[in-house]
């Protein structure tokens, strides 16, 4: 389990939903995959108003119907809605699509110049007070953005930063990851399989074979071994969900980690935050 700054435990392996809700023909498979993930214990589900223009939130709403209390639900507000009133209205729309009365963690999806962080914070604080969201956080924030956030009134209540982090994209190890760790702010690693690219990596296939595991399991285990890192792979395939869940049982030894460092180099200097 990871821990929010409040001390609340959160599952380290969750489920992403980007690209879900786009095609009616895939609806049943997507709901079944999310339900299987919940059955197995991948109880955190990550979605956003942006995904399929609300379609992914509707899929999630259908998947968690009747089992809301099992789920730690994460959704996100788009920067274009991120004014004081706009954030609250966007959250209300998300709650309707998700068919629930609360979001466990509500994130600002990314930062744009015109977004007034202080206003978003006011909206998040009002939403927490009203019980519509339990925690709030940010996404695609680098160290400087986080520092600015923490200087604002109420900013220290930030509960997570969701950023791209995987074996191919290790830039945050240089500064953001240790910065968050020192402040006990969990990092949610999005695109943990590099949008599927890592599954096809020859280097990773070789290392996985030696471990009797699959590339996706090694990629996820590599993230999950780290304190307070949450991984949210997306899969609409039940076989892939089972495979990904088994990553929780895979232990990587010193030599395995060294082999991964040789194949997927650590950053030697500050890199711009990777984004999709
Ligand atoms: N905050 C942000 O700005 C942001 C940006 C991007 C993503 N995210 C979140 O992070 C989640 C995950 O990232 P992502 O969707 O970009 O990419 P990802 O999880 O790294 O990769 C997803 C791709 O990998 C495939 N896959 C999953 N498990 C597999 C397995 N065991 N074997 C083979 N292929 C497998 C999936 O296909 P199948 O469905 O066929 O399994 C899908 O094509 C998103 O869904 C979203 O919730 C957030």
Secondary-structure blueprint of this entry?
Blueprint: E1 2-3, E2 9-10, E3 14-15, H1 27-40, E4 44-46, H2 55-64, E5 72-77, H3 84-98, E6 103-108, H4 117-130, E7 133-139, H5 143-151, E8 161-164, H6 176-182, E9 187-190, H7 202-211, H8 215-224, E10 229-231, H9 238-245, H10 254-263
Parallel strand pairs: 3-4, 4-5, 5-6, 6-7, 7-8, 8-9, 9-10
Antiparallel strand pairs: 1-2
Helix pairs in contact: 1-2, 1-9, 3-4, 7-8, 7-10
The structure holds NADP nicotinamide-adenine-dinucleotide phosphate.
NADP nicotinamide-adenine-dinucleotide phosphate is lined by residues 16-18, 46, 109, 139-140, 162, 190-196, 199, 216, 232-237, 240, 243-244, 276.
Q: Any overview of this molecule?
A:
The protein is α/β, with parallel strands linked by helices. It has one domain (9-196, 230-237): Alpha-Beta Barrel (TIM Barrel), CATH 3.20.20.100. Helix content is 39%, strand content 14%. It has ten helices and ten strands. The strands form two sheets. An eight-stranded parallel beta sheet has the order 3-4-5-6-7-8-9-10. Strands 1-2 form a two-stranded antiparallel sheet. Strand 8 (161-164), helix 6 (176-182) and strand 9 (187-190) form a beta-alpha-beta unit. Helix 7 runs antiparallel to helix 10. The structure holds NADP nicotinamide-adenine-dinucleotide phosphate (NAP). NADP nicotinamide-adenine-dinucleotide phosphate is lined by residues 16-18, 46, 109, 139-140, 162, 190-196, 199, 216, 232-237, 240, 243-244, 276.
């Amino acid at each position: 389990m990871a821990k929010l700054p409040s001390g609340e435990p959160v599952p380290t392996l969750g489920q992403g939903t980007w690209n879900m809700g786009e095609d009616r023909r895939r609806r049943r498979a997507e709901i079944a995959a999310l339900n299987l993930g919940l059955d197995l214990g991948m109880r955190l589900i990550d979605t956003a108003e942006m995904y399929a223009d609300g379609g992914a939130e509707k899929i999630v709403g259908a998947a968690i119907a009747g089992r809301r209390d099992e789920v730690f639900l994460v959704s996100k507000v788009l920067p274009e809605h991120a004014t004081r009133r706009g954030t609250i209205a966007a959250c209300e729309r998300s709650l309707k699509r998700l068919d629930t009365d609360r979001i466990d963690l509500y994130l600002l999806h990314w930062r744009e110049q015109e977004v007034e962080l202080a206003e978003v914070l006011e909206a998040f604080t009002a939403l927490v007070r009203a019980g519509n969201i339990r925690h709030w956080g940010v996404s695609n924030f680098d160290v400087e953005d986080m520092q600015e956030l923490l200087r604002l009134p109420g900013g220290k209540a930030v509960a997570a930063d969701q950023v791209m982090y995987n074996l191919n994209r290790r830039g945050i190890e240089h500064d953001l990851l240790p910065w968050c760790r020192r402040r006990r702010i969990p990092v949610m690693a999005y695109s943990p399989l590099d949008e599927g690219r890592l599954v096809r990596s020859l280097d990773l296939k070789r290392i996985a074979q030696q471990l009797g595991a699959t590339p996706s399991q090694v990629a996820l285990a590599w993230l999950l071994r780290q304190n307070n890192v949450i991984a949210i792979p997306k899969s609409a395939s039940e076989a892939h969900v089972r495979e990904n869940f088994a990553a929780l049982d895979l232990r990587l030894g010193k030599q395995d980690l060294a082999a991964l460092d040789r194949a997927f180099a650590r950053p030697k200097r500050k890199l711009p935050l990777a984004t999709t």
